[in-house]
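Re-run with default settings, no changes from the original entry. Doing this only to confirm the output is reproducible before filing.
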Amino acid sequence: MADESMERRLAALEERVSRLEAEPQTQRDEVFWALEGLRRRLTGPGQVLFTGALNLPTGERYEWQQGAETDQLLAADWPEGAASLAALGHPVRLTLLRAVLSGTRSAAELQEAAGLHTTGQLYHHLKQLTATGWLQAEGRGHYQVPAGKVVPLLIVLSAVVPTSNRTTGE
């Protein structure tokens, strides 16, 4: 009888130890669920993946994913992306993009949203954003962020705008 009690206690103890040993990986999998999925699919030395699924205040829904192999990114012509990044490097342009994603689409409304005093100022910034593909004209005097740029824009912003839900790994 004492042996049965001892065996049950030992089995219960082994179960607790097993759960404790498994817990850190379980927690890591829950925090890094997207990363763990990427690791299972990796075929080369590394890859970067960004993805998103969202509804804008306008009711538009976007689902998007893009991946790139590390070797290809490191070998790419980085200065080729400078104009696109530079277009995002102005506070007025970021204000315009946010306004468009929030539903403000007409040039007059955009001028007001950005606090610009002349249409010349507005069109200077709109020209930079359309030339680099962050905006596109959708009829006379109306603009939209192209579907393929919505999630990438928000990802770029998530890399530089402070938020409370950042997760870091190894």
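The beta strands are 47-55, 61-69, 136-137, 143-144. Residues 99 and 109 are 9 Å apart (CA to CA).
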